[in-house]
Automatic annotation (TrEMBL):
Top-level taxonomic group: Eukaryota
Protein location: Cytoplasm
An annotated GO cellular component: cytoplasm
Protein name according to UniProt: IMPCT protein
Length: 210
């Protein structure tokens, strides 16, 4: 019922990525005639949603990284904790829209999305590689989504291994690998990667985990 309602409300902005796996994507903008701020929210609904598990989600926007990403992710998690056991996708979408409208109405400059992964200069070389600090292998803290109100920094950031960049016809490709055991760690790894401006502004970021 929730999916049918969202599809009806958001129309063409709502997209079914994989109906069997319950993966959906919605394009959200600041509601202006000529939107300045746009973001895509991708969600996967686990079997326990909404009564026992939250959606697994990814926020995709070339300008969204660092503190902006962390603050928005924290806002979505707060909404989940305040509405345990209830359907929350509509609340998430409208919270994101609220943030985009605030950005559009503020004095913040328009997002710089001109340079994409297809436009990376071939002489960029090694500075495409991320700088990261080795994390000591302490025991992983498992997260109880239902009762825990711990922030994402409580979850250990796994070590990230970076492949060598490969450039072919002005497109640059690079793989990154990290050992993860919880969905929260997947988010932490993605957030760490998106701190790199070239990854954050790429138009074809792809990730998978098991």
């Amino acid at each position: 019922d929730e999916i049918e309602a969202l599809s009806s409300i958001y129309g063409e902005d709502w997209c079914v990525v994989d109906e069997d796996e319950k993966i959906y994507c919605i394009k959200i903008n600041d509601c202006l005639d000529q939107p300045k701020w746009t973001l895509c929210l991708q969600v996967m609904l686990p079997p326990g949603y909404p009564t026992a598990e939250p959606p697994i989600y990814q926020l995709n926007a070339p300008w969204l990284r660092g503190q902006d990403y962390t603050e928005l992710a924290n806002s979505l998690e707060e909404i989940y904790l305040q509405n345990l056991g209830e359907s929350i996708l509509y609340l998430w979408v409208e919270k994101i829209r609220e943030v985009l409208i605030e950005k559009a109405q503020s004095s913040e400059p328009e997002p710089d999305i001109k340079k994409t992964s297809e436009e990376v200069d071939e002489d960029d070389g090694d500075d495409f590689l991320l700088e990261y600090q080795h994390i000591q292998e302490d025991p992983i803290k498992m997260l109880n989504y239902i009762t825990s109100e711990s922030r994402q920094e409580d979850e250990e950031l796994p070590s990230i291994h970076h492949g060598n960049p490969i450039t072919d016809r002005r497109s640059t490709f690079q793989a990154h690998l990290a050992p993860v055991v919880t969905p929260r760690q997947v988010k932490r790894v993605l957030e760490k990667l998106y701190e790199n401006k070239k990854i954050a502004s790429a138009t074809h970021n792809i990730y998978a985990y098991r």
